[in-house]
Write a structure and sequence with these properties.
The structure holds two protein chains of two kinds.
Chain A: H1 8-17, H2 25-38, H3 56-95, H4 102-114, E1 121-128, E2 135-139, E3 152-153, E4 159-166, E5 169-177, E6 181-183, E7 190-193, E8 198-205
Antiparallel strand pairs in A: 1-4, 2-5, 3-4, 5-6, 5-8, 7-8
Helix pairs in contact in A: 3-4
Chain B: H1 2-5, H2 19-22, H3 27-34, H4 38-59, H5 66-80, H6 90-108, H7 112-124, H8 132-150, H9 153-164, H10 169-176, H11 180-198
Helix pairs in contact in B: 3-4, 4-5, 4-6, 5-6, 6-10, 7-8, 8-11, 9-11
The chains are: A alpha+beta, B mainly alpha.
């Protein structure tokens, strides 16, 4: 049934019902304020999916599996940190003051490309700056390498953006402005990151 | 109820437009809102608030709750935005959330009597000396909204989504999971009901 098929009386009723109510600016402001206040931070994430009740048997099985996973992850992390954590810390420290060295960048890029996760999700980073000449996103997903993720400015606007493949999970990141100034994402929650040694912005990629 | 009668713009209604035309928000705005940009989210609210209010007023047993329900829907939307997947149409997603909020509000209490008494009060509040045709407009407006309120909810929602909010049957099928043939039947039943009720008051 299209508009032309409508009975004239129903058509008039439809015309009446299509009248838009007035959108009061104050009402819109209330909606925005309530929404901003209610948005969850990553720390609240468990509230979204509370743990389900499980039987004792299931808990034992799940607990055993979890212990095995933790043991494997610890072993893997020990091996990974032996390879990567030193250059990452070095780059982060340099990045706070001056551009990273070319040799350091090359070494880190090789590691990060080798670690690309097949289940990575495309994620767009957006940063607003009118004064910046270059902006790059740096984070644990690209080994804090500003040369690895330079953002592009959208026309004459102040918006800089880049889309990167990010492995699902929690990541810490920030923005490198003009290769010298590290800035957090004002739109994202903050978290202290032991590798970076200072606050970082946090994203959760994929379903928690 | 004055929200329903007095605050509606008494201007010629726009032609039926597709939702995409009605509020063309660029994907960058939605992406920025997804990342937590409150300015981008404000643009989304500004673009959809009036339509959401119109939909909620049509769906709620107590239209006085429309503003609260719309606010609840936007709060839920903002909290869920990080999980929004762009292959899903944003507008369909918003109206799905809003529809759920309306259903939840309707299950709280049956308040049909409030609606009719509020309509009478709102009509009584019309300014003295109002033009006769203005009054007729409002009588027609009240009659239409009362008739729509009496359409069973499961028929009304599809009728409003299709004819008032401009969603295609294909989109509504994706939103509700109801087959297209059943959707058309519900719209026809709602139309027949409205014709029966409004035929008596048509001027």
């Amino acid at each position: 049934m299209s508009d032309s098929d409508l009975d004239p009386i129903v058509g008039r009723a439809v015309d009446e019902l299509r009248r838009l109510p007035v959108a009061e600016p104050a009402a819109i402001a209330r909606v925005v304020a309530a929404s901003a206040a209610a948005r969850l931070t990553p720390a609240d994430e468990p509230l979204i999916a509370p743990p389900r009740e499980r039987s004792i048997t299931k808990r034992l099985v799940v607990g055993g599996c979890a212990a095995a996973v933790v043991a494997l992850a610890t072993l893997g992390a020990w091996q990974w940190r032996a390879r990567v954590s030193a250059p990452v810390r070095a780059t982060a420290a340099i990045a706070m003051q001056a551009p990273a060295s070319t040799a350091g960048q090359r070494e880190i890029r090789e590691i990060s490309s080798a670690d690309v996760d097949a289940s990575a999700v495309a994620h767009q980073f957006v940063f607003q700056s009118s004064a910046a000449h270059t902006v790059a996103v740096v984070g644990d997903f690209n080994a804090w390498n500003p040369a690895d993720a330079e953002m592009t400015r959208s026309g004459t606007s102040n918006l800089w953006s880049i889309t990167l493949p990010i492995a699902p999970g929690r990541h810490v990141y920030g923005f490198m402005i003009d290769d010298t100034l590290f800035s957090l994402d004002p739109q994202a929650p903050k978290a202290r990151d032991p590798d970076l040694g200072t606050n970082g912005s946090v994203i959760i990629v994929g379903k928690p | 109820m004055d929200d329903i009668v007095l605050r509606f713009n008494l201007v010629p209604p726009p032609l039926l437009r597709s939702p995409a035309q009605a509020a063309a928000l660029d994907s960058a705005t939605i992406t920025r809102a997804k990342l937590g940009d409150i300015d981008a989210f404000t643009r989304i609210v500004e673009a959809y608030y009036a339509r959401c209010l119109r939909f909620a007023a049509s769906m709620l047993r107590n239209p006085d709750e429309a503003e609260d329900v719309v606010q609840d829907a936007f709060v839920r939307l903002y909290r869920a935005l990080p999980r929004y997947e762009e292959r899903q149409r944003f507008e369909s997603w918003l109206f799905q959330i809003l529809g759920n909020c309306c259903r939840t509000a309707n299950t709280v209490a049956v308040r049909e009597s409030i609606r009719s008494s509020d309509d009478e009060r709102a009509l009584a509040q019309l300014p003295a000396g109002d033009r006769a045709d203005h009054r007729l407009d409002n009588e027609w407006s009240i009659a239409v909204r009362q008739a729509l309120a009496e359409v069973p909810e499961y028929n009304r929602e599809i009728f409003v989504l299709h004819y008032i909010e401009g969603f295609s049957y294909e989109e509504i099928e994706r939103m509700t999971g109801v087959k297209r043939s059943a959707l058309k039947m519900r719209v026809k039943r709602a139309s027949d009901f409205l014709r029966g009720r409004l035929g008596k008051v048509d001027r």
